[in-house]
Each structure stands twice: as structure tokens, then as C-alpha cells.
Design goal:
The complex is a heterodimer of chains A (356) and B (463). Chain A contains 3 helices and 29 strands. Chain A has 356 residues and is mainly beta. Chain A has a single domain, classed as Neuraminidase (6 Propeller). The longest helix of chain B has 16 residues. In chain B, helix 5 packs across helix 19. Classes of the chains: A mainly beta (356), B mainly alpha (463).
């Protein structure tokens, strides 16, 4: 369904943006996005390992941060540029995992392998980097995602030590909470994280199949979802976003057939509202450029039956969510299809007569 | 614990899996050989969670899999599975039902086939063969999508008989034709192209309007056969039992002549082939029944180091030995290419005949690759498996060169080497005198050097 109406809300599919590309107009395993000044969206591309004959020169294809604008409708997206690449030098990353933009327009990108944050100006020029680890940290760590509050405090999830860590914007450690387990306040491989307008912190507790809500200093407040693949149930949640009305969006990897992935919407009290499964029935403008340039692609697409078309419409392992409060829309990072799917949260929607 | 028990268990785990650490072998020995065989045949450990790999390396599986690196997910699975025989049988069927990305150009589809082997590889052969006949990657690989009622393509029909069931010499060209006619209409649906949004799965499709409904005579039987009927007849043919038995012997017991020579070269051990074939027939084509006979037989137990390791066995076995590959960290793609550098490009066999095994694995280039890779791995003393060997040596205190060499050989297998080989190792160790732990770093370095020397031996190439 392109338009879904439930509990007084209307979610209307807008358009998709992106295509598979290791540079330029498209993405390569995009995992996270954040919006900066002037509607610029920064997209972290995880990329892939390349073939190398020598272990000391491993290559990462497509790892970068893309700068784009989304546009209000199909065909209005723009590619502005890109920065960073695979590596461990200043401004480079091995496993890009998350991105936020602070009140000054600075861009923070987390690295899940090197456990550090690279900071850039809004044009992508490297400013600094700092570690998400403390000197006495032992064991395994993986900085899985990043969030920022109105005071520019930075929160990261550590999926391998099962913690949330809070830093100042300069990287000064402030606090941490969590340990491995399934009790309230404990985590099992926490991943996506966000902060709502009141400063509360939401964490996608990936292997516990839930989202937990905390105060800004880590006091447990609530839990969303239950394990499972039914309506409103969560299976391997990856990301979470909250809109100004308090509605909570949770991406997960529930198996809906060939390629798993759903986005569940709950109200602020945790009541399940509706599920999105991906509706990109029309190719994005950039994807259409590729198809239009390849006559065999065009011919083959016309031979495909409806059932086999559907796999292109649906989400494939979404791992990022971004709510654009200015325009009232949800951006789903549809990672394995290297694109965004965009849903408008429509106000004042008039439901048509059922007997038309 | 008797050394012979350890040696036999190590033999079982090298063949029925990809090897085991010394700690694992000691635990398994306490259970007893026959009990371990039953555990291997009926694994109770949970399968690996594919999403653990996807979590960190999203490019390794559909729909974002990239050309050239498609075996990374499978390599991780082979190294980390707790169901080793299931995975070894998956590799076995990939050898037999060889299907390659060079033509299919769709890693995800071949990975789907690998998943199918994992699920059905120790089950009923007839069920496996029927499922294979409907596998889109196989149908494309052998052109059955071009096999039409009014224009027969014999590729699938021929290979089904020649390489997947009975072997040359047990059917005629007419049988090939009739078999192919029975599989007309077995194809797959058109799928979306790979660009620009990633791969899409194929789905099997049976098109009755494209199926030859005429009467066929196949292997002496006549009827309006469809593909299922052909598979029934093939499975019931005694040549199939022998063919599968010989493949299992070659893969698990000892190097045999290669398939093209089977028509003219008798099996190394005809009694063994007969025993396995009997198990196949008596059980109604149950692969697990054949494996039970095989692993409990004397011909298997007496075949230690009678097989050259395949590149996959070298790489996976060494990674299991040295440890530290449980987390799918950066570099998994590079590791997944190592078997290819040694002559075995997983998911991309050289032809439908699969890889030639035994001595044909070895040439000057592939041998160098084997030695470089394994020496790099065991030379890394930070690896937990290497640390474990160092710790066991340290627990013995200072030891003379002979005990140093013998202990390392024991902990690396136990590895059985000739007297000449042992002497060569001693020639290396004796000048350094006793292994003394008064200088930990120097002692670890000496252990590392000896381990690197051991993996460069001819003997380490045998399983």
C-alpha cells in the first residue's frame, strides 16, 4: 500500500532515491544518514572489501560519505559531493557505522572497527578524530551507531561491549551504561540510537529484539516491542527514530520473504500503530538513468511477472532511519538496495469513500 | 589419554570436518569414537546465524553480493560451524554438482544452492537430486532453460547421467536424448536484472506447455516420463549407488582416480565401494546411512594421511587450528580468496566436472601459496590457537630438541611424519639447544619458527 492510514496518522510513500554505485550518484551498502543545514543529507556508505593480492593493502570499495539533497518529490534529488574513504588515516574509516550533524553544522561519523569518531566541517573537510574507548577498556568493542542531543552531546552504542556511551562534542567521556543481558537497561548487541526532542535516548537492542528508552543520564524508562515476526513484533531491530509528535519508528530485519525488512511505528506510549514494508514501485531517478541506458535491462524488466517485481519494491535489510522534522517525512535507509525510501507523514489527509 | 585415540579422532575430524583443536579432540575422545560419529551425523548444535555476518559485512550476501568475493560468507561458515560434517558434505556436493559463477554470474543463486546442500546434503539422495533439478542456478548452468519440447537441449540431461548419478558407460546416447526430453519445460521465471538496485532471486518454473508429453524409452523402461520419473529410474540403477560410493570414498577416505578414468580404472578398494553402495541401496538412497558405514569402517580408520588436502581444507583447517576467525572482521574477503590462489575458486569450479583432486591440486604455484598462507597463519603467535600450542609447550618446562619437535608434531595433528622428515626438523631444532622458557619471547619465537617449518612439510598437505 502506498498510503496507510491508522490511528489518526497517514503515511504516504513519496519516492525513492539512489542506486548501487561505488562513487557519485548512488550508494554502496549505505547504513546511516543525517541531515545538516540547507537540507544537505550525509550518507555513510559501508562499502565492501575489494580483492587484493597483498594483505597489507586491503581495499574498501565504495566506503565514503555522500552529500545529497532528497528533494520534495521524484527526480528532485541532487548529488552534491562525497568525502572520506576506506582507511585508518585522519578522516578515513574502516567500517562507517553512523553519522550526526551538530548545531554548528559539523559532521560526526562513527567507525565500528577503529572505534573512533571522525569530525568534519559541513563541506567534508577533516577537523579532528577521537576514540570512543577509554584507556582502561578491555575486551571487544564496536561503535555501532551515533546520536546527538540539542546540547551537542554525543551518544554511541557499542554493540560488542553492550553499552551506551555519552561524550561531549569534543570527545570528552561523560557517562556510560548497560551490560550484556536481557533485563531492563541491559543490552544484547545494541545498534541504532536516537535522541528525542525531550532529550530521551532510544536504543535498538538488536539481539534482544526490542527498543529501550532512557533518560539522558541512562535511567531506564520504557521498552518497545516484543520478540517475534508478527504485527508490532520486532526481530533484529537495527535503527530507531522519533518524530516531534513522539511517534517512534523502528527498522528491523523481520523476514518478509526473499529480503527481510520492516519499519514499525509505535506511538509515544509504545502502542503499535502500523508497519511499512517498502513501496518503491517506481525506480528512483538515478536508477532509471541506469536502466534507460541499457536496452537489455529495459527488455528484461518488461518480461518480469508481478511477483518477481515485488522484490524490488520492498525493503532489503534496512539499517538506518532519519526523521526529517522540517518536511515531516521519514527516510528509510534501504541498505541492501543502496537507496532511500521516503514516506511523508501527511496531516489533514481526507480518506476517500470506501464505496468508490 | 592414548595417543592413538587422539590420532584417530583427529583423523575423523579432519575428514568429517575441517579439523579440531587439541582441546576439542580431548573432549571428543572422552565421548568415544562411535558416539562422535553419531553426533556428526545428527548434529544438535544450532546452525550459524547468517545475520551475524550480515551485521558486519553486508556485502557478503544477497542482494548486495559483489563479484569475486562471494565465497566470504561460506568461508566464515566453514570455519565457525558447530556442525562440521554437515558443512563438509556441503563442500562435497559442491564438488559433485559443480556450478560456477563464471557462467551463472549470480553469487547469491549459487549461495542458495550451497544452503540447499547444507539442508539436504546428509538426507535422501533422490530428494537432493530432485531439488537440484529444480535449482535455477543449475538449470541455467546446464542450459535447461533452453530445453524445449520442440527443441531439445541435452546439456542437463547428459550431465545428470554422466556426472551427477551413474557415470559414463551405463547409458546410451538415446538415453541422454530421452532423459532430456523428460526435463523439457523445467526452467525458471524471468527475474529483474542485477542493476541498478542489486540482485534478485530466480524462481523455478515448470511450463507444461513446453514439456514433451510424448512417450519416452529410458534405460529400458517406457512411458510418458517427466523429470521425476527419470530420477526414480536413475536412483534405482545400481551404477548410481557405485558412482556415489566412489565419490564419497575419494572425498573422505583416500585419493582415487579422477572421474573421467572411472570407466577404465577400478576402485582402489572395491570392497569398500561395495559396502557403501549396499548402504545406499538398503537404506533407500540415504546418504547418512552411507556415511555411518564409511566412518565406522576399518578402511576409513586405516586411511590416515591418505588424502591430499583440498585448498578449502588447507585454508579452513589452518584457520581453525590457529583460531581467531570467529568474528567476521575486516579481511574476510581476502581470506575467502585464498583457496582460489591455491587452485580452488569456491562457487566457481572450472567446469561441471568440478575440481580434479589428489595430486592434481599441487603445482609449483599452488604449493607455494599453500606454504605461504599456512606459515603466515601459524607464525602469528597472537592467534589463540598458536598461543594454546605455546602454552602447552610452556607447561612442559624446558625440553630438549627431540621433545620440542615431537610435541609440536603432536599438537599440530597429531601429524605423522617419516623418519627423514623428523630428522630434518631435528636438524633445525638441535642447533638452538633445549627450548628454554627463561626468555619467553625467544621461546615463543622458536615455537613459531618450528610450526612454520612443519606446515611447509609435504606431510602437512595430507589429511
Amino acid at each position: 500500500m502506498l498510503t496507510q492510514v491508522a490511528a489518526g496518522r497517514t503515511y504516504d510513500f513519496s519516492h525513492s532515491v539512489g542506486r548501487g554505485a561505488q562513487s557519485g550518484m548512488g550508494f554502496s551498502q549505505p547504513v546511516a544518514a543525517a541531515q545538516g543545514p540547507n537540507g544537505v543529507v550525509y550518507v555513510v556508505n559501508r562499502g565492501s572489501e575489494g580483492i587484493s593480492n597483498v594483505s597489507w593493502n586491503r581495499i574498501g570499495y565504495g566506503a565514503r560519505v555522500s552529500q545529497i539533497t532528497i528533494g520534495a518529490e521524484w527526480g528532485q534529488e541532487e548529488f552534491l559531493g562525497e568525502f572520506s574513504k576506506y582507511g585508518d588515516g585522519n578522516g578515513e574509516f574502516i567500517w562507517g557505522s553512523g553519522v550526526v550533524v551538530d548545531s554548528q553544522g559539523r559532521v560526526y561519523v562513527s567507525d565500528e572497527w577503529l572505534n573512533q569518531i571522525n569530525v568534519y566541517d559541513q563541506d567534508g573537510n577533516f577537523l579532528s578524530r577521537w576514540s570512543t574507548l577509554e584507556s582502561d577498556d578491555g575486551g571487544e568493542h564496536g561503535t555501532a551507531s551515533i546520536a546527538i542531543d540539542a546540547d551537542d552531546n554525543i551518544y554511541v552504542t557499542d554493540g560488542r561491549s553492550h553499552q551506551v556511551r555519552k561524550f561531549g562534542s569534543d570527545g570528552k567521556f561523560i557517562a556510560s551504561w548497560g551490560s550484556q543481558g536481557s533485563d531492563n537497561g541491559q543490552f544484547n548487541a545494541p545498534w541504532g540510537i536516537t535522541v528525542d526532542q525531550a532529550g530521551n535516548v532510544y536504543v535498538a537492542d538488536h539481539r534482544n529484539h526490542r527498543v529501550q528508552k532512557f533518560t539522558s543520564d541512562g535511567r531506564w524508562m520504557a521498552s518497545f516491542g516484543s520478540p517475534g515476526t508478527g504485527r508490532g513484533q520486532l526481530h533484529l531491530p537495527t535503527s530507531v527514530a522519533v518524530d516531534p509528535e513522539g511517534d517512534v519508528y523502528i527498522a528491523d530485519w523481520s523476514d518478509n520473504g526473499q529480503h527481510p525488512g520492516r519499519v514499525h511505528i509505535f506511538d509515544a506510549e509504545g502502542t503499535f500503530i502500523i508497519t511499512l514494508i517498502g513501496d518503491a514501485q517506481e525506480l528512483s531517478a538515478w536508477a532509471k538513468l541506469t536502466v534507460d541506458a541499457n536496452a537489455d535491462y529495459l527488455k528484461r524488466r518488461r518480461e518480469v511477472n508481478l511477483q518477481n517485481m515485488e522484490s524490488e519494491w520492498r525493503f532489503a535489510l534496512p539499517t538506518g532511519l532519519m526523521y526529517d522534522a522540517d518536511k515531516g517525512r521519514l527516510l528509510v535507509v534501504d541498505s541492501q538496495r543502496s537507496r532511500f525510501q521516503i514516506y511523508n507523514k501527511v496531516t489533514g489527509y481526507m480518506v476517500p469513500q470506501m464505496n468508490l | 589419554m592414548a595417543n592413538q585415540d587422539i590420532a584417530l579422532m583427529a583423523h575423523l575430524m579432519r575428514r568429517a570436518g575441517f579439523g579440531a583443536t587439541r582441546e576439542e579432540l580431548e573432549t571428543l575422545c572422552e565421548k568415544g569414537y562411535e558416539a562422535v560419529v553419531e553426533e556428526l551425523l545428527n548434529p544438535t548444535e544450532e546452525p550459524l546465524d547468517r545475520f551475524e555476518m550480515m551485521r558486519y559485512q553486508p556485502w557478503t550476501w544477497r542482494p548486495g553480493t559483489l563479484p569475486g568475493m562471494g565465497a566470504a560468507e561460506w568461508l566464515w561458515w566453514m570455519v565457525n560451524t558447530r556442525r562440521p560434517l554437515e558443512e563438509k558434505m556441503t563442500l562435497f556436493w559442491h564438488h559433485i554438482f559443480a556450478t560456477g559463477v563464471s557462467k551463472v554470474d549470480h553469487y547469491d543463486e549459487i549461495q542458495n544452492m550451497i544452503t540447499m546442500f547444507r539442508e539436504k546434503g546428509m538426507g535422501n539422495y533422490k530428494d537432493l537430486l530432485l531439488t537440484l533439478s529444480m535449482n535455477p542456478a543449475m538449470l541455467y548452468w546446464l542450459d535447461n532453460n533452453e530445453n524445449h519440447a520442440d527443441a531439445v537441449n541435452e546439456n542437463w540431461g547428459r550431465e545428470l547421467l554422466e556426472l551427477f548419478s551413474m557415470g559414463v558407460g551405463n547409458y546410451t546416447e538415446v538415453d541422454v536424448r530421452e532423459c532430456s526430453r523428460a526435463f523439457t519445460g523445467w526452467t525458471f521465471e524471468a527475474k529483474l536484472p542485477r542493476g541498478p538496485l542489486g540482485r534478485h532471486d530466480w524462481r523455478f518454473e515448470y511450463r507444461p506447455e513446453d514439456h514433451d508429453e510424448g512417450e519416452k524409452t529410458f534405460l529400458g523402461e517406457t512411458g510418458n516420463f517427466n523429470g521425476e520419473d527419470i530420477i526414480d529410474i536413475v536412483c534405482n540403477h545400481p551404477a548410481t549407488a557405485t558412482f556415489i560410493a566412489r565419490h564419497l570414498y575419494n572425498f573422505f577416505v583416500a585419493d582415487e582416480a579422477q572421474v573421467p578414468a572411472w570407466q577404465v580404472t577400478p576402485p582402489v578398494d572395491e570392497d569398500a565401494i561395495d559396502a557403501l553402495a549396499d548402504a545406499f541401496i538398503d537404506s533407500g538412497y540415504d546418504i547418512k546411512a552411507m556415511l555411518r558405514v564409511l566412518f565406522n569402517s576399518d578402511f576409513f580408520k586405516n586411511a590416515r594421511f591418505a588424502k591430499l588436502k583440498s585448498p578449502a581444507e588447507v585454508v579452513v583447517g589452518t584457520l581453525k587450528l590457529v583460531g581467531g576467525s570467529d568474528f567476521p572482521g575486516p579481511g574476510i574477503g581476502d581470506l575467502s580468496r585464498q583457496p582460489n590462489y591455491m587452485g580452488q575458486d569456491l562457487l566457481n569450479p572450472p567446469s561441471v566436472e568440478g575440481w580434479h583432486t589428489g595430486a592434481e591440486w599441487i603445482n609449483s604455484g599452488s604449493l607455494m601459496r599453500r606454504i605461504n598462507f599456512t606459515a603466515d597463519m601459524v607464525g602469528d603467535v597472537s592467534r589463540p590457537g598458536v598461543q594454546s600450542i605455546v602454552n602447552r609447550l610452556r607447561s612442559q618446562g624446558d625440553v630438549g630438541p627431540e621433545q620440542f619437535v615431537d610435541t609440536c608434531l603432536d599438537l599440530m595433528g597429531p601429524l605423522e611424519v617419516s623418519a627423514d622428515t623428523r630428522q630434518e626438523l631435528l636438524d633445525h631444532a638441535v642447533p638452538g639447544g633445549s627450548l628454554s622458557w627463561s626468555n619467553e619471547a625467544a621461546a615463543s619465537e622458536r615455537v613459531s619458527e618450528l610450526l612454520q617449518l612443519i606446515v611447509s612439510l609435504r606431510d602437512y598437505q595430507y589429511a
